């Protein structure tokens, strides 16, 4: 494989940054309002916010479409690849429903995480076959599939391993999901990204956390699901800055979503949490990427230190 390295192009807005509904407590309509009020133009949707709406899926879909927020993507399809027989058939049915929901919401990206199932094969050919099949199911709906290597994945747990399979599958709407948390949790060297085609990175999710190491898959999973913080709030700020600049220099021009699972934030008012996300976006745009940031009403807020 050859390293990919495109000529950087300057961008001048925070429209590349968005929030994830999993970060926020409360009903869907309140989440949408808080995200928009904080100045974001896009949102990453979790399936439970849609199917769990008390007035039903149709109402939830209408709320998203009426919000004016662009849908960054829809998550998450788990444990799809490497299964056989009735387990594979079951997951295909699940995938079809996830794709249908994503399409109804106007989401152009479906996030699929590497399998953690003890029943999943680690055979590369089987995984490639299944990823190609998933992408084929999504293709008629105009949806891209972003395959992400979970840091506690059973067979695929690093970004370059996920990329090798995506590259082998070689399907137009199959690409990579890059998550800063998983890169830091596995201490993956950033030069591994040099061999990834930036046009095949369909989504980048950003988060930090409050300690340096997660030594076991169990620690990685527990930290990921309960203790993430926004970029600039944790102890990996320098590494995260380097990662974002690295992706930018490689030529990535897609979306960044703040995927922050945090139990404390689930107990706090929505505007408070959304404002922390806004400060994080300003820090990334102005301090890390050195972009000029126009905010609603020409109001400028203090970037994070």
- Number of DSSP strands? 10
- Number of structurally distinct domains: 1
Tell me the strand percentage band: 15-25%
Structural class: alpha/beta
Question: Which radius of gyration do the C-alpha atoms yield?
Answer: 18 Å
Q: Sheet bearing the most strands, described?
A: 8 strands, parallel, barrel
CATH class category label: Alpha Beta
Identify low-pLDDT runs: 1-12, 293-305
Calculate the mean pLDDT score and round it: 90
Fold-level CATH name: TIM Barrel
Numbering strands along the chain, what is their spatial order in the largest sheet?
Answer: 1-2-3-4-5-6-7-10
What count of helical segments does DSSP give? 10
The proportion of residues forming helix, as a percent range, comes to 40-55%
CATH architectural name: Alpha-Beta Barrel
Shape verdict: globular
Give me the CATH superfamily: Divalent-metal-dependent TIM barrel enzymes
Order of helices and strands: EHEHHEHEHEHEHEEHEHEH
Cα separation of the termini: 39 Å
Organism: Roseateles koreensis
Pfam family, one: AP_endonuc_2
Domain Xylose isomerase-like TIM barrel: 32-284
GO molecular function, one term: isomerase activity
Task: Tell me about this structure.
The protein has 305 residues and is α/β, with parallel strands linked by helices. The chain has one domain (17-298): Divalent-metal-dependent TIM barrel enzymes (TIM Barrel), CATH 3.20.20.150. 40% of the residues lie in helices and 15% in strands. The chain contains ten helices and ten strands. The strands form two sheets. The protein has an eight-stranded parallel beta barrel with strand order 1-2-3-4-5-6-7-10, surrounded by five helices. It has a two-stranded antiparallel sheet with strand order 8-9. The longest helix has 21 residues, at 85-105. It is globular, with a radius of gyration of 18 Å. Residues 1-12 and 293-305 have low confidence and may be disordered.
């Amino acid at each position: 494989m050859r390293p990919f390295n495109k000529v950087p192009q300057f961008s001048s807005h925070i429209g590349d940054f968005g929030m994830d509904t999993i970060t926020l407590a409360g009903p869907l309509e309140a989440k949408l309002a808080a995200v928009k009020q904080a100045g974001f133009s896009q949102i990453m949707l979790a399936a439970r916010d849609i199917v769990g709406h008390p007035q039903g899926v149709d109402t939830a879909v209408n709320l998203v479409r009426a919000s004016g927020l662009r849908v960054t993507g829809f998550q998450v399809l788990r444990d799809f690849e490497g299964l056989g027989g009735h387990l594979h058939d079951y997951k295909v049915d699940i995938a079809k429903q996830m794709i249908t929901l994503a399409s109804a919401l106007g989401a152009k990206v479906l996030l699929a995480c590497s399998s953690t199932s003890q029943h999943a094969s680690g055979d590369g050919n089987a995984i490639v076959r299944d990823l190609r099949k998933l992408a084929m199911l999504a293709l008629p709906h105009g949806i891209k599939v972003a395959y992400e290597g979970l840091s506690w994945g059973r067979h695929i747990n690093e970004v370059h391993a996920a990329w090798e399979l995506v590259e082998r599958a070689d399907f137009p709407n199959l690409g990579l999901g890059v998550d800063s948390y998983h890169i830091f949790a596995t201490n993956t060297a950033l030069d591994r990204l040099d061999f990834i085609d930036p046009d095949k990175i369909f989504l980048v999710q950003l988060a930090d956390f409050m300690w340096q190491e997660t030594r076991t898959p169990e620690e990685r999973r527990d930290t990921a699901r309960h203790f993430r913080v926004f970029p600039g709030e944790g102890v990996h700020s320098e590494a995260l800055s380097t990662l974002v600049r690295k992706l930018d220099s490689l030529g990535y021009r897609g979306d960044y979503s703040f995927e922050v699972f945090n139990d404390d934030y689930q107990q706090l008012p929505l505007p408070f949490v959304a404002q922390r996300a806004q400060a994080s976006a300003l820090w990334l745009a102005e301090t890390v990427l050195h972009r000029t940031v126009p905010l609603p009403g020409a109001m400028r807020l203090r970037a994070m230190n």
